[in-house]
Design goal:
alpha/beta; nine-stranded parallel sheet; 12 helices
Length: 274
Amino acid sequence: MSRLGAVFQGLREKNRKGVIPYVVAGDPSPDGTVSLLHQLVAAGADVLEIGVPFSDPMSEGPTIQKGHERALANGMNLSAVLDMVSVFRRDDQRTPIVMMGYANPIERFGYSAFANACAAAGVDGLITVDLPPEEVDEIDSALQAVGLDNIFLISPTTPETRIQTIVERARGFIYCVAVKGVTGSGQLDTDAVAASVATIKGMTTLPVAVGFGIKDASSAQAVANVADAVVVGSALIAEMEALARAENASEIQIHGGAVKLLQSIRSGVDSSPS
């Protein structure tokens, strides 16, 4: 069983919901990313989602776009992200890692070479934001050959016929987008989220994680009532960015803000009715 499968099975057996933080590799600094990942696990993360810095992150809102810009300015690239995962794996062989990125750097790397490098580093799943299910055959074959899960986004506007196509290709879990638009935009409509999750669950037995719009313990609790896991990204990056602007802020303080927020979200998720 994959690490993702084992974690979601364990959550089901304990009647718990998962927490998945998203961070951009290399933001606020390359040297601190691995430490931040370990701290987030200690704060209650069940799965880690790592953004691969890209020059045109089209699905991201301003907050995460700035994170990508800072990481690129820090010299980050796809190979450096894989190196970070390898270092993380020296001390943590349990927590699943999902890489979230865009097709262009992966295509340049080469699908087979990329899949092999991911497996060697300890990556468990991949979200390629701009690669639709109709165009994934080549990369999907490469990922399957090394046991990696291919994870897809389903948006509030995705028609049911397309949802069926997506769930037939997906592995690991389904990423349900809670709001229309880019990350960090829009207001969370919990009734609409519940309806979307119910539709997806009617078509697949895969776990459903909900992201985009999870900002605090209250929104995390509301989403955890209907989903198998919540994803939080923009709120964490915004918190670190705000702390980084403070005069003489240390990396320990910056990371501490993200950890404190994730602990709050973990508490909110754990307080949702089973």
